[in-house]
Amino acid sequence: MSKIDTDFIAPFVDATRKTLETQANTPTTFGKPMVKTEENTPSSDIAGVISLVSTAFTGTIAICFPEPVFLKVYENMVYEKVEKIGKEQEDAAGELLNIIFGVAKAELNNKKGFDIQKAIPTIVRGGQIKVRHLTKNVAIILPFESAAGSFHVEISSDFE
Amino acid sequence: MPANVGDLRFLVVDDMGTMRKIVSAQLKANGASADKITEADDGATAWDLIEKTTAENAFQYIVSDWNMPKMQGIDLLRKCRAHPLYKNVAFLLVTAEAEISQVKEAITAGTDNYIVKPFTPPGFAEKFKTVLNKRFK
User: What is the enclosing helix (H) or strand (E) of A144?
Assistant: First the structure.
């Protein structure tokens, strides 16, 4: 069983939806969260990853997109159509995750007393990449649907 | 004092090219002239640009991200407020940080306003105009 509770996950879900809709003009619907396994993890071509560090726990959050989905999100964000992911699109993926992290961090720190520290996103690119979480608890997949296509967020922590 | 927004010289500071593009587009949508918008990809680069300006060509409105490598937006703001040419420059801080302590820190450092990402075009316009009215009317 996951030790990540809904009070912890909900701010990241809300932040993802708010960020995609507001900054990237991409409204989303949230699917059913699931415990990540090798078999159920959607393959992705670009992922932004941020380490979660607080006095109470460490963990990871990642946002993962197939290339065609991310290119459409990017187009919605800056009104520019591009055919392939390049440096500027990597920046955009990092910025989206940075905003999601900032929104969720503020909610968790202001209202729930977590002390999550600032962090800088890392971008991973490649064919069918998968993010491996090294925390002792399971990772959770948060699936999202949009007119641009499906993407997901992964979150893990070593909450006791 | 400039007669309108199109006459103002802007400096947009963000380490993410996408956000520089978004902010510059929002400035243009609010009346800024494209040829009067300069972009810098971190606080240190922005400061280098600022130090090369004179009273005749100083930037008049700075829109800066907070979290950047080399020099953070809040440090750029503090340096501006201590600079004779820039102590009264219009300054809008853009941040993904909406924590109460950080908002207080930004106000103490002398920002004219701050906008929290993600923002909508109307949200940006409101903050942009608040700063404009404070500094240019």
Answer: strand A140-146
Q: Do B97 and A109 count as a contact with CB atoms less than 8 A apart?
A: no
A89: nearest CA partner in chain B = B18
Chain A residues with CB under 8 Å of B120 CB are 22
CB atoms A91 and B18 under 8 Å: yes
Express each pLDDT in A121-136 by its tens digit: 899 988 767 777 666 6
Whether residue B95 and residue A18 make contact (CB cut-off 8 A), yes or no, is no
For residue B90, list its beta bridge partners. B61
pLDDT tens for each residue of A55-78: 888 889 999 999 999 999 999 999
Query: How many residues are present in chain A?
Result: 160
Do you know the residue count of chain B? 137
Give CA–CA dist B56/B45, Å, rounded.
20
Chain B CB contacts of A92 under 8 Å are: 16, 18
State how far the Cα of A101 lies from the Cα of B100, in Å rounded to an integer. Answer: 16
Question: What amino acid is encoded at B12 in this protein?
Answer: V
Structure tokens at A70: 């991310």
pTM: 0.87
DSSP secondary structure of A18-80: HHHHHHH---EEE---EE--TTTPPPEEEEEEEEEE-SS-EEEEEEEE-HHHHHHHHHHHHS-
Q: What distance in Å separates residue B104's CA from the closest CA in chain A?
A: 13
Do the Cβ atoms of B16 and A77 come within 8 Å? no
B29/A29 Cα distance (integer angstroms): 30
**What secondary structure letter does DSSP report for A83?**
S
Residue B118 is nearest to which of A18, A91, A120, comparing CB atoms? A18
Global ipTM:
0.81
Pair B59, B50: CB distance under 8 Å:
yes
Which of A23, A100, A108, A115 should be substituted to probe chain B, the one whose Cβ sees the most B Cβ atoms within 10 Å?
Answer: A23
